[in-house]
Amino acid sequence: MSAISNCSPYFAGAGVGGTGVNFSGRKMAFLSNSSRNSNAMTRILRLSENDMFNACQIAPIHSRRTNKNRTISMALVDVRQGQKGDVASSSNILAYDLIQGELVRWSSVMDRSLSDPPTAVFLHGILGTRKNWGTFARRLAREFPTWQFLLVDLRCHGDSAPIKRRAPHSVASAALDVLKLVRELRITPRVLVGHSFGGKVALSMVEQAAKPLARPVRVWVLDATPGKVRAGGDGEDHPAELISFLSTLPKEISSKRDVVSALIQQGFSSDVAQWVVTNLRPASPLHSRSSSFSWVFDLKGIAEMYQSYEETNLWKIVEDVPRGVHINFLKAERSLHRWALEDLQRIHAAEEVAAEEGGGVEMHVLEDAGHWVHADNPDGLFRILSSSFQGLKT
């Protein structure tokens, strides 16, 4: 297994016996941690300075390759192909990790003479990061070694937070960011998986892509609905209130434990409090005596994103599914997200219409799980999602 990241110092491949490729600025380090050679060799390659790119012009792309099974490339990439050898060297693209199965050659990202491996894109929710998906994606890579998995920090989140993005901070803008990233990496997504806010981002990616799509694409919207976000009941966590409370805290924190206690005192659950502090990182350099922490998100931008999440209506893409697209909704059995009877009825109605028109809509329920599906019942989620990675022709 290998892991490619454009953010230092995170190395997703560590501890899994694979290889890691780290893009930082305009240099790439290829690190070999093979047990057969204790002296890991490092090679530094200079990459082309392709720092600027325009908004995606989404369209099918006819491949020049002669492989009869790959005459058309899908969709979610720009019509203008980069020159062979170009890679995502821009410091202005989203932070990402690309986790690859053992049968995927890491160089296929840069060498266009190699066959494209099937790719799944994973998107986190509000106040999350790409690391939320790390363990789950590595498990998928072990089970499906011909696949690669792109984990993304959305705008205003994680390692993407320092990158200045143009307003508005919305679902549509976040989706366009990811489309630009896959275009820059020249990756062809076959599966899009989004949790909560990320689910709407995935739907927006499909909405902004060419229709009909040239390849089958499976979209997974995890514990989110396409339209109105309904407030939870008593005893449930409310993201808007959480964001508001976090905005009252100082930018530098002396103790994670104090933050957890403060959140619980405000009525938030212990699980949510523990999850929130994963967004704290040491504020001082490594080996410094200072023990303060700072937040890794742009909270003002996130507040705008959450408001957009509440207001964005993507029912149209669900009720008029493009040919070649299969949209899967997953409801957590103990969801904090408020699923209304109307939402369920509209999804079931869309299932019937899509089946008649060559698209697909399907509803799933994940038992024994709350809103944090990949933490509450990872085994159940793995079994449900696995269908997307079995039997796809590449």
Structural write-up:
By secondary structure, the chain is an alpha/beta fold. The protein has two domains: 2-230 and 314-389, Rossmann fold (3-Layer(aba) Sandwich); 239-308, no CATH class. The longest helix is centred in the last third of the chain and has 16 residues, at 341-356. It has an eleven-stranded mixed β-sheet with strand order 4-3-2-1-7-9-8-10-11-15-16, with helices on both faces. A three-stranded antiparallel β-sheet has the order 12-14-13, with no helix packed on it. A two-stranded antiparallel sheet has the order 5-6. The protein has helices at 134-143, 171-185, 197-208, 239-246, 256-265, 270-276, 299-311, 315-319, 341-356, 373-376, 378-385, and strands spanning 2-5, 19-24, 27-32, 42-46, 61-62, 72-73, 96-100, 119-123, 148-152, 189-195, 217-222, 252-253, 280-282, 293-295, 325-332, 360-366. Mean pLDDT is 76; it is low at 9-89.
Write the layout of secondary structure elements.
Elements: E1 2-5, E2 19-24, E3 27-32, E4 42-46, E5 61-62, E6 72-73, E7 96-100, E8 119-123, H1 134-143, E9 148-152, H2 171-185, E10 189-195, H3 197-208, E11 217-222, H4 239-246, E12 252-253, H5 256-265, H6 270-276, E13 280-282, E14 293-295, H7 299-311, H8 315-319, E15 325-332, H9 341-356, E16 360-366, H10 373-376, H11 378-385
Parallel strand pairs: 1-2, 8-9, 8-10, 10-11, 11-15, 15-16
Antiparallel strand pairs: 1-7, 2-3, 3-4, 5-6, 7-9, 12-14, 13-14
Helix pairs in contact: 2-3, 4-7, 5-6
